[in-house]
Amino acid sequence: MNVTYIPGSNHTVDLAGTTQFGTPGLNLGGTVLEDVLRPFPPTLFHSEAITGTLQDRVVRMGDGTLAFYTRIKEFSGSQGITEMTFNWLVTSPPPTINFDFRTDGLGVIGPSRVSYENSGQIRWTFNPVVTPTALSRFMFMIVPGVTRYLRPGVAGDNRVGIRGGDYWATSPAIFCFAPDLS
């Protein structure tokens, strides 16, 4: 689903998920360039230690464009994860991004919607929530025409935050691969 960033506004779309060939004009198959497991720091939410692992993947699709995949691979804690946010470390976010999740891969729970906010932040919302026994599916974002990426720790990468329950605070930032928008 293409979502266009309009400065000063938020854009939210409901997601149904897709398969490798389920989106007309978009073949999500390709070559995995990077596939890294990133532990999220133990975080205390109401005296309970929450831990988990984020799977961070970059795929080069057949036309050379990059797809950035993320999923919650491991999670411990009694409360479920309700949101995952991506904060761009760039001055101007890309104007259009393709967002969705894969129904033909690993995981059980896909996000119910995605928001592309006026700050450029991307917010994935899970309903039902991600739990230790029902982990997330691969979510993806594709910036049309982007063929290069940034490694974590380089200006322009993504900062990811995990949030659970209505009263939980957001986890410390997890740095992930990001489209190179230069």
Main β-sheet: number of strands, strand sense, barrel status? Answer: 6 strands, antiparallel
The proportion of residues forming helix, as a percent range, comes to under 10%
The H/E string reads EEEEEEEEEEEEEE
Task: Give the CA-based shape.
Answer: globular
Q: Return Rg in Å.
A: 15 Å
Q: Total helix count?
A: 0
Low-pLDDT segments: none
Number of discrete domains: 1
Query: Averaging pLDDT over every residue, what do you get?
Result: 82
Total strand segments? 14
The span between the termini is 24 Å
User: Approximately what portion of the residues adopt beta-strand conformation?
Assistant: over 45%
* Biggest β-sheet: strands ordered side by side in the sheet: 1-7-10-5-4-3
Structural class: mainly beta
